């Protein structure tokens, strides 16, 4: 049975002029440099160089075949979320990119599984767009791990998560909009340290903010990049919950009681780190992910899973495809 990669991204090969279609920006735009290369631009600044495997389904399929991947979950690139924009504009942007993502995935509907984006800053608009997207052919939704200073325990975000639980829509949480500083702007430190920290913080918000106590267990939610640094520091979190209940969260139970309520992907690159995830969360909560097609992703996809000498056959199969089939309700 082929593997399922739950963490990949898409960038369409161009989109309408968002300022003309939506309103004043600033908005991302695509500078196409050749048939195989382009640059995502933010105003006059270069944001990220991308290749045609971001938009060319046939190239994606060739690379999937090379890595033994049967199915990809294809999610938005977070730079398009537009959470800082007025909600009506962000809703129009979400509709544009969601429809374009369906076009990218259309050549292989049995292998490319599109996930939508939503205007998360407005729960009503977010619920409306996820319903529209699912009806149009999307199979789930990717959200950023925060909206400005509002984390995943914000009442509006919780309303959206409850809606997804009620509708049976899987949610993939991706870090984005990491803090900037002179110390973090060197060596891609925002990506090397900021992304793991952001993801860790939002899992804590789900637990200590009481989200898992309020949202039904039917919510299928997964976090990118192995859950960031959460697994390594669970013991510190548990200790704080027991020793300082006066300041640490409002959760009804200790943090370790919620480990079966969320999943993480396997993009930790090293078998030792993967073993920590399995030891901490259980093999049933880890799904194959790659961050394809970006350079900081894992290639070949699943390398750490395949190099592990500790996983037994059942654990390896669960991580490579079994858990994802359950999460996606395939």
UniProtKB/TrEMBL annotation:
Identify the Pfam families for this entry: Amidohydro_2 (PF04909)
Quaternary structure note:
Monomer.
Source organism of this protein record? Agromyces tropicus
Against SUPFAM superfamilies, the record matches this protein to: Metallo-dependent hydrolases
Q: Which InterPro entries match?
A: ACMSD, Amidohydro-rel, Metal_Hydrolase
Known EC number(s)?
Answer: 4.1.1.45
Q: In which pathway does it act?
A: Secondary metabolite metabolism; quinolate metabolism
Where does the Amidohydrolase-related domain lie? 4-329
> Among its keywords, does the record have Metal-binding?
yes
Q: Which family does it belong to?
A: Belongs to the metallo-dependent hydrolases superfamily. ACMSD family.
> What is the official name of this protein in its record?
2-amino-3-carboxymuconate-6-semialdehyde decarboxylase
Which keywords does this Swiss-Prot/TrEMBL entry list?
Answer: Decarboxylase, Lyase, Metal-binding, Zinc
Q: What is the lineage of its organism?
A: Bacteria, Bacillati, Actinomycetota, Actinomycetes, Micrococcales
**Does the keyword Zinc belong to this entry?**
yes
């Amino acid at each position: 049975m082929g593997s399922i990669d739950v963490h990949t991204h898409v960038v369409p090969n161009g989109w309408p002029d968002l300022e003309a279609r939506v309103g004043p920006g600033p908005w991302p735009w695509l500078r196409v440099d050749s048939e195989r290369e382009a640059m995502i631009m933010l105003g006059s600044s270069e944001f990220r160089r991308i290749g045609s495997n971001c938009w060319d389904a046939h190239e994606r399929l060739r690379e999937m075949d090379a890595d033994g991947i049967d199915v990809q979950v294809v999610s938005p690139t977070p730079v398009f979320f537009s959470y800082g924009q007025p909600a009506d504009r962000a809703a129009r942007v979400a509709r544009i990119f969601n429809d374009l993502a369906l076009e990218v995935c259309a050549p292989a509907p049995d292998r490319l599984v599109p996930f939508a984006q939503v205007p998360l800053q407005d729960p009503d608009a977010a619920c409306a767009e996820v319903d529209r997207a699912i009806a149009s052919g999307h199979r789930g939704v990717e959200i950023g791990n925060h909206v400005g200073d509002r984390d995943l325990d914000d009442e509006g975000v919780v309303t959206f998560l409850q809606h997804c639980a009620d509708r049976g829509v899987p949610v993939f949480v991706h870090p984005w909009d990491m803090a900037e500083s002179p110390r973090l702007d060197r060596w891609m430190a925002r990506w090397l340290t900021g992304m793991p920290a952001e993801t860790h913080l939002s899992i804590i918000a789900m637990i200590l903010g009481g989200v898992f106590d309020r949202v039904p267990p039917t919510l299928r939610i997964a976090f990118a990049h192995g859950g960031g640094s959460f697994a390594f520091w669970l013991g510190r979190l548990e200790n704080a919950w027991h020793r300082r209940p006066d300041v640490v969260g409002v959760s009804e139970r200790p943090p370790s009681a919620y480990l079966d309520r969320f999943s993480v992907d396997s993009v930790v690159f090293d078998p030792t780190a993967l073993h920590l995830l399995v030891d901490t969360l259980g093999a049933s909560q880890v799904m194959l992910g790659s961050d394809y097609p970006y350079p900081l992703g894992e290639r070949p996809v699943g390398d750490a899973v395949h190099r592990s000498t500790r996983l037994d056959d059942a654990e390896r199969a669960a991580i490579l495809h079994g858990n994802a089939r359950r999460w996606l309700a395939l």
